[in-house]
Amino acid sequence: MTETIELGDILIMVTHKAIKNVHLSVHPPEGRVTLVAPKGTRLDVARAYAASKLGWIRAQQAKLEQQAREPQRQFIERESHYLWGRRYLLSIVERDTRPHVILDHKRITLIVRPGSDRTRRAEVMHEWHKGLLHETVPPLIARWEARLKVRVAGYYLQRMKTKWGSCNHEAGNIRLNTELIKKPKDLLEYIVVHEMAHLIEPNHSECFVAILDRHYPNWREARDELNALPLAAESW
């Protein structure tokens, strides 16, 4: 069950889970606020805790508001696009053939049919991104299945507005944000490990933190680097 706390203009979504301590989070990109409280915590107690952290909440939201955002991509000649954290220039080639993408060390060449609009060009690029992720993600999962001693039943790629990934603990599935294709590969690996760790511990508990500390000790640096990178400008 989810409840809502209002503190002035700030809405906080409250959920209760089998944890020991309260977890308050401000999520990129829009600054959405959530509070996870131990089961049995009264709403007025959760409200008092959130009120005591109001200054911190506003500071985190202000930080996100000031964070750089990627310009809306127009998919035109010599536009900057990012792949695995590296900047490439886009080249557009109109040709009456199957749309596809070619990558070299300096350029991403997007081959589309004559008259293709921005939406169609974006679709072709997104499918190419998904293909690259489908090449990269399975080896990462296999490596970390052995280390974490878990089994991933399946993984899914999709656009996400507020999360880099998610885990369905019961089904054994993980989901990954396709925007990760634009970030350095080690940050993709961090998200894969993070979501796979949820197959052991579904909550962001002390146990979960201990799992990351043991198996991926630089996870805090990876998290901070990922959240400091420019936010997507997609309006979908």
Overview of the molecule:
The protein is of the alpha/beta class and 236 residues long. The chain has helices at 43-52, 54-66, 118-148, 185-197, 206-215, 219-228; strands spanning 2-7, 10-17, 23-27, 32-38, 80-83, 86-94, 100-103, 107-112, 154-158, 165-168, 173-177. Helix 3 (118-148) crosses helix 4 (185-197) and helix 4 (185-197) packs across helix 6. It is globular and about 65 Å long. The model has no long low-confidence stretch (mean pLDDT 91).
Fold topology:
Layout: E1 2-7, E2 10-17, E3 23-27, E4 32-38, H1 43-52, H2 54-66, E5 80-83, E6 86-94, E7 100-103, E8 107-112, H3 118-148, E9 154-158, E10 165-168, E11 173-177, H4 185-197, H5 206-215, H6 219-228
Parallel strand pairs: 2-4, 6-8, 9-11
Antiparallel strand pairs: 1-2, 3-4, 5-6, 7-8, 10-11
Using brief descriptors, characterize the structure shown:
single chain; about 240 residues; alpha/beta; four-stranded mixed sheet; 6 helices; 11 strands; about 25% strand; globular
Strand order in the sheet with the most strands: 1-2-4-3
Q: What is the helix tally? A: 6
Percent helix range: 25-40%
Major sheet size, sense and barrel closure: 4 strands, mixed
Uncertain spans: none
User: Radius of gyration from the CA trace?
Assistant: 20 Å
* Cα distance spanning the termini: 28 Å
In short:
With 236 residues, the protein is of the alpha/beta class. Helix content is 37%, strand content 27%. Strand 7 and strand 8 form a beta hairpin.
